[in-house]
Fold this sequence. Notes:
- A five-stranded mixed beta sheet has the order 2-1-3-5-4.
- By secondary structure, the chain is α/β, with parallel strands linked by helices.
- Helix 4 (54-70) crosses helix 6 and helix 7 packs antiparallel against helix 8 (151-190).
- The protein has eleven helices and five strands, in the order αααααααααβαβαβββ.
- It starts with a helix and ends with a strand.
Amino acid sequence: FRAWSMVLLPFLAIGVWAILRRPADWAWFAFLRQTRSFANDATHAHSSLDAGALVRDVLHYTWRSPLRMMGYAVVFVPFGVVPVWRRLGPYFTLASLAMLGFVTLSWITRSSLGLDRHMVPIVPYYAVCVAFGIEGFARHADRWVTRLASKPSTHALESILLAGGVAMALVLQGAILQRWMFEWEGAIRSALPDRLAVAAFLDANVGTTTIICDESTIELLTHIPSSQFDRHAVDDPRTLRILRARLGYEPVIYVATWLSKLRALDPLNGTIVYRDPNAAENEGLAVLRLERK
């Protein structure tokens, strides 16, 4: 049972999550389809082939993301792949490579946004490969130094190489840290401007009114209590019926979502009180105000 629990427990967790999501999604495992749809809309592509970047995207989680997360220590990963296989066995390696293949395929098919946090499950494998890689590289370097230098000067040469290696590592890590901070500063200045604008509008105008919102980032960026948000999918046919019922006892309801989804609510004759000024026609985020007639 202990061996099978490694397979059964993740499936159990997925099943529990699917059951919890069912009342909000009104369909089993709808979050899988919605996740890819969201990623496709955000990246304006359905696969790497659309963007002509297959090779770059294959390297995204195998090289570029580990480089950003771990620094230049990832250069030792190739030296540790074989020792990890020999010492820790094939199961650890195959399981890690399966996860790496999954996140890479998800990015290639634009089923995800290619975020660095998706690399987290593979970090232990890369870290172990770095550790074994450094050990193997040091062992080979020691043999090389021993052959290169005579016995009396070996220690001096080793010290010089060690000091040079440490200095180079510090310089490289300093360079990558500077890049991290530059990317972080740029991200916090310009991240999600359309969602921030909608969140600011809601903060300033809705008061204690109920908000129908199926775009979670808007909710997270507001200062409005979560109890005011109703997270039903706006374009689901049943939402129209729910809103009609709620307008029977609530004088005003706001709906914050993508403009294309608001067409499903046309029968309610609401008023669009906010539209993304930078979005194309019939695109972007919008806020609809519904009033009891």
